[in-house]
Design a protein that fits this description.
Structural class of chain C: alpha/beta
Mean pLDDT of chain A: 89
CATH topology of chain A: Fumarate Reductase Iron-sulfur Protein, Chain B, domain 2
Strand content of chain A: under 5%
Mean pLDDT of chain C: 95
Distance between the termini of chain C: 26 Å
Number of helices of chain A: 7
Number of domains of chain A: 1
Order of helices and strands of chain C: EHEHEEHEEEEEEHEHEHEEEEEEHEH
CATH architecture of chain A: Orthogonal Bundle
Number of domains of chain C: 2
Radius of gyration of chain A: 16 Å
Largest sheet of chain C: 7 strands, mixed
CATH class of chain A: Mainly Alpha
Number of strands of chain C: 19
Strand content of chain C: 25-35%
Low-confidence stretches of chain A: none
Low-confidence stretches of chain C: none
Chains: A mainly alpha (123), B alpha/beta (350), C alpha/beta (349)
Order of helices and strands of chain A: HHHHHHH
CATH class of the largest domain in chain C: Alpha Beta
CATH topology of the largest domain in chain C: FAD/NAD(P)-binding domain
Oligomer: heterotrimer
Bound molecules: flavin-adenine dinucleotide, iron/sulfur cluster
CATH superfamily of chain A: Alpha-helical ferredoxin
């Protein structure tokens, strides 16, 4: 029956076991990711984020909680310039992290070059 | 469940009450207020005055930003004037929103005496009336709570499943404006008010402590008033239903008109929109006002209490408690007139 | 000792790290001291812990070492002797204990420390209501057993810490930071992970205050080595779930979204409040400062002296502090007292 409205879906983060498992895998692939202390240095310097709505810190935080919706598209905004990796005070290997995030979120998007990159930039 | 929170008790007057009715309750729970008056007068022998010239407290308009504060203050002052003129000092508003409004206005006057003076002047200039601030403002649920053991002695039934002998499992829901605005105004404070839990436990039932117990029902005046916003209003009730479902509650009891109505009617809406009900058999979870709960246990006729006007029908619950009722009289009004039969919902069983 | 009034040169009230350290230093200087402790054990605020930050050293061993100092220096020391009144009479201080016995001292050192915040006051967090909710001190007791278990006695899937319980909270009237709980949470999170590596561990914080040497490194290690998740946000409500876990609501303020999850154990990092003894005795002599802590004369150069001549303060009775802070402070107080006794001839006090 149509009452002229729809029932809102919850928007709170509700972590799942599957999400935790994904994170565990990612942390194994990019162990430096564990050290992130959310300073926002990466976002502050991000070549892309200064011109388009893209917040790399928020993206990797959403991934931590298993909030994958639209993250894949978000990550397409990254130019892989590597500036974020340079500034990170906790030595998080952001470029590697971004590649692994893309891989985890959508394997089809990866070119052979990137797959090579992953093989050679594991840490 | 441990419960030290009921240690906090508020002051509730003993006798000589001035009763103020709710704007909406007589439509949705038509027998509740009458039952309350009957309990006080006949079961407890109290003096409670039912004023004929009363009017809204403006609560819904006030909380929807339609009625300005000074208007609300003056309207509240007029109600207090009616109380003063009738010779009473203990104010008992039937509605939780009114209870919140009165408590709030009195608190504001305490901190801003100039507002009180201004209100006195406006009321006098416009109506020629003067008023005293009540000595005690208590919600009727406070009063039933206070006299729960006295009422228990007169009760014919208990909150016990007569087939299993086990206590009925009850969800209690407290209106936000009962204690969240002024925690000190609530029995047992704001986080775990004890006002309804105290009745349930005294009368043989068991309170369900489910995860979303303290979440708002979603009534939120200006939200449900706008049709397009109702989706977010109803989502709050749905969140509560989902959270209480595994505990298989026998019924829900609430002390606020909005909550009681929403928790009842939204079950129909959700059933129609999503074909989902929150009891195993598809009838929904009955929702009672505390007066209805007390009235049933005292042996008042369920149809005189107005239970047939609820969305979720009460028969399965009445059967569980063993309350006698005549199915043929369900749609005979108090005046003896035969009431029109409601249409049957598509999904919710009745 | 009943009936007669005992006369003492320096009376030290409080047998925690601060009181014991001051007593042992003073007695080594040849000052005649007496030490009074209300509880039946020395340094019970240490004895109820398992391992201590920053070095994971044993709390029991520290209590032993401290108690040993009392024995070695032959300090007249009284356990189960709670001082309930402190009053200046002419040139001397009169102490009265719970049994009504009186002691007269030339000089007094107040080292009455702290009590933990009573977590029941934060009703919304469900302490004392839900079995899965505990305080950091309860967790220390569990750590002492060598095993981390949920309410069913099983290995927990998830343990969650909440910082600043009873501190930095206007709702309960404590605006201050308790200083030790941030690093304690990091320490405890690591201990939980060591005992139960499969357990997911979360720490909800408002700010992480890693002020001491090695603390920041410990935080980094907690993330890097133990995969402990630090989430910026305050848990607003805890409730029981159908399967006897604890449901919590918070916001991850760094993504700006509300969060709802369940955990086997919720550990409340309770703050430090002035102990009952501190509140009472400081008020007795008019040196009660904010929140009931004892007030020193001046924070830089006279932090052990008070507005009252011959009355000194040391340790966590002044403000939240760590053990090393308290012990250093006690040493400083001892020095001040020695100076004071030297310059003030016995008849002029
Ligand atoms: C959860 C938690 C964990 C902590 N972990 C650590 C850690 O790992 N490392 C660290 O450095 N610090 C830690 N601390 C801080 C540490 O406990 C304090 O720094 C230390 O106890 C302060 O010593 P104190 O002697 O000043 O006070 P206290 O230890 O509080 O000693 C004061 C003593 O005075 C007694 N007393 C009080 N009133 C009276 C009275 N009227 N008469 C007689 N006696 C009285 C009390 O019984 C008490 O024994 C922790 C604190 C908390 C809350
Ligand atoms: S690599 Fe991507 S995320 Fe990092 S600075 Fe460059 S564009 Fe931004
Ligand atoms: S710069 Fe490094 S530590 Fe800072 S938010 Fe980015 S990844 Fe995290
Ligand atoms: S030390 Fe940390 S947890 Fe403790 S009160 Fe300060 S900020 Fe909060």
């Amino acid at each position: 029956m149509d009452f002229g409205f729809t029932i809102s879906k919850p928007r709170s983060i509700e972590p799942t076991e599957a999400g935790k498992e994904q994170l565990r895998l990612l942390e194994e692939q990019v162990p430096t990711f564990r050290r992130c202390m959310n300073c926002g240095g990466c976002t502050a310097t991000c070549s892309a984020g200064h011109f388009i709505n893209f917040n790399i810190r928020k993206v990797h935080n959403l991934y931590r909680w298993g909030q994958y919706k639209e993250l894949d598209e978000e990550l397409q905004k990254c130019m892989l310039c590597g500036k974020c990796t340079l500034v990170c005070p906790r030595g998080v290997n952001l470029r590697s992290l971004i590649i692994h995030l893309r891989k985890a979120l959508n394997k089809d998007h990866l070119s052979n070059d990137f797959q090579h990159f992953i093989r050679n930039n594991n840490r | 469940m441990k419960r030290y929170w009921n240690e906090y008790q508020k002051k509730i007057a003993d006798d000589k009450f001035f009763y103020e009715r709710s704007c909406i309750r007589q439509t949705f729970f038509p027998g509740s207020e009458a039952a309350f008056l009957k309990m006080l007068r006949e079961e407890l022998g109290k003096d409670i005055y039912d004023e004929a010239n009363q009017h809204t407290c403006t609560g819904i308009g006030y909380h929807s930003d339609i009625v300005p504060l000074q208007t609300t203050m003056t309207v509240v002052a007029r109600l207090f004037a009616l109380m003063t003129e009738a010779g009473y000092e203990n104010y008992v508003p039937s509605c939780v929103t009114s209870f919140g409004v009165f408590t709030e206005m009195v608190e504001m006057w305490k901190h801003n005496p100039e507002l009180l003076e201004k209100t006195r002047k406006i009321l006098y200039d416009t109506t020629g009336r003067t008023f005293e601030i009540p000595k005690n403002i208590a919600h009727p649920s406070d009063i039933i709570y206070k006299f729960r053991y006295e009422l228990k002695q007169k009760m014919k039934y208990q909150l016990v499943n007569r087939f299993t002998g086990k206590p009925l499992r009850v969800v209690e829901h407290i209106g936000c404006h009962y204690a969240k605005i002024f925690p000190k105004a609530g029995v047992g404070n704001a986080e775990f008010p004890y006002v309804l839990a105290g009745m349930i436990e005294a009368w043989g039932g068991e309170v369900i402590d489910y995860p979303e117990r303290r979440h708002c029902c979603g009534f939120g005046f200006r939200q449900y008033l706008v049709q397009e916003n109702r989706g977010y209003s109803i989502a709050n009730s749905k969140k509560k239903f989902e959270s209480m479902e595994p505990y298989e509650p026998d019924f829900i009891v609430a002390n606020c008109p909005g909550c009681t109505m929403f928790l009842d009617k939204w079950q129909y809406t959700i059933a129609e929109m999503e074909n989902k009900t929150y009891d195993k058999n598809g009838y929904g979870i009955p929702v009672l006002s505390y007066e209805e709960m007390a009235g049933l246990l005292l042996g008042y006729d369920p149809w005189k209490l107005g239970l047939q006007l609820h969305q979720v029908q009460a028969e399965p619950l009445l059967n569980k408690i063993g309350i006698a009722y005549n199915p043929n009289e369900k749609f005979t009004g108090v005046s003896g007139k035969i009431l029109p039969r409601p249409e049957k919902p598509h999904n919710l069983l009745v | 000792m009943d009936g007669k009034i005992i006369s003492i040169q320096v009376a030290i009230i409080g047998g925690g790290p601060a009181g014991i350290e001051a007593a042992s230093i003073l007695s080594r200087y040849g000052v005649q001291v007496s030490l009074f402790e209300g509880e039946s054990k020395w340094a019970h605020n240490i004895g109820n812990k398992f391992k201590l930050f920053p070095d994971f050293s044993s709390a029991d061993e520290l209590v032993q070492t401290l108690s040993q100092k009392i024995v070695e220096n032959q300090i007249p020391a009284y356990l189960s002797t709670k001082i309930v009144a402190l009053e200046k009479q002419k040139n001397a201080w009169v102490l009265t204990d719970e049994q009504g016995r009186s002691y007269v001292a030339d000089t007094v050192l107040l080292a009455t420390g702290y009590d933990i915040f009573d977590a029941k006051r934060k009703e919304e967090l469900g302490y004392g209501i839900y079995n899965g909710v505990m305080t950091s001190v309860d967790l220390e007791a569990m750590l002492k057993t060598g095993k981390i278990t949920n309410v069913l006695g099983e290995q927990p899937q998830c343990v969650t810490f909440l910082q600043c319980v009873g501190s930095r909270d206007e709702k309960i009237g404590n605006h201050y930071c308790s200083k030790v709980c941030c690093v304690t949470a990091v320490k405890q999170a690591i201990e939980v992970k060591k005992m139960s590596p499969q357990t997911d561990v979360f720490v909800f914080y408002m700010d992480l205050r890693m002020w001491g040497q090695g603390f920041e490194e410990l935080y980094r290690e907690a993330q890097e080595k133990y995969s402990i998740r630090f989430v910026r946000g305050r848990i607003s409500e805890a409730a029981s779930t159908f399967d006897d876990r604890v449901q919590i609501k918070a916001e991850d303020t760094l993504v700006g979204q509300p969060l709802k999850m369940s955990t086997d154990l919720l550990v409340l990092m309770v703050g430090m409040e002035a102990s009952c003894g501190t509140k009472k005795l400081a008020a007795c002599c008019g040196i009660d400062g904010e929140y009931g802590f004892a007030l020193s004369k001046q924070p830089h150069l006279a932090d052990n002296q008070t507005a009252q001549r011959g009355l000194f303060v040391a340790g966590a009775c002044k403000r939240p502090m760590s053990i090393s802070d308290a012990i250093n402070d006690a040493r400083a107080a001892a020095t001040e007292i020695v100076e004071y006794l030297k310059i003030v001839p016995a008849n002029k006090k």
